[in-house]
């Protein structure tokens, strides 16, 4: 059993229009390259398009509504929706709503920011 107490986490990254709170640090799941985090995108803000070389992201909506933008499509993520972003998928996100969008992200094959290519 592994237990991570609420409040013990630290804010890992604050970017332009978003923040990430790491709930389960890299490697804590018994896999070298894994991380679990809560990401927030603030009303009217966006995350620029980017891709991951090896990383897969499993994203589950928690609250608010967020639009994920891909090369040829957009997906509206609502609470309890699940989106899987595979390595190489060019993606970004935006919050067109008046409420902060929160989602849980499980990162697999996570190699840190060195795995991210920003467009």
The oligomerization state is single chain
- First-to-last CA distance: 40 Å
The beta-strand count equals: 11
SS element count, helices:
0
CATH homologous superfamily classification = Jelly Rolls
Radius of gyration: 14 Å
Please, what is the average pLDDT?
A: 88
Total domain units: 1
Order of helices and strands: EEEEEEEEEEE
Using the coordinates shown, work out and report the CATH topology.
Answer: Jelly Rolls
Annotated CATH architecture = Sandwich
Structural class assignment: mainly beta
Characteristic terms for this protein:
119 residues, mainly beta, six-stranded antiparallel sheet, Jelly Rolls, globular
Structure characterization notes:
The chain has 119 residues and is mainly β. It has a single domain (11-118), classed as Jelly Rolls (Sandwich). 0% of the residues lie in helices and 53% in strands. It is built from no helices and 11 strands. The protein has strands at 11-15, 18-24, 34-41, 46-52, 56-63, 66-70, 74-77, 82-85, 91-94, 101-108, 116-118. The model has no long low-confidence stretch (mean pLDDT 88).
Short structural description:
The protein has 119 residues and is mainly β. It contains no helices and eleven strands. It has one domain: Jelly Rolls (Sandwich).
Task: Set down the secondary structure blueprint.
Layout: E1 11-15, E2 18-24, E3 34-41, E4 46-52, E5 56-63, E6 66-70, E7 74-77, E8 82-85, E9 91-94, E10 101-108, E11 116-118
Antiparallel strand pairs: 1-2, 2-3, 3-10, 4-9, 4-11, 5-8, 5-10, 6-7, 6-9
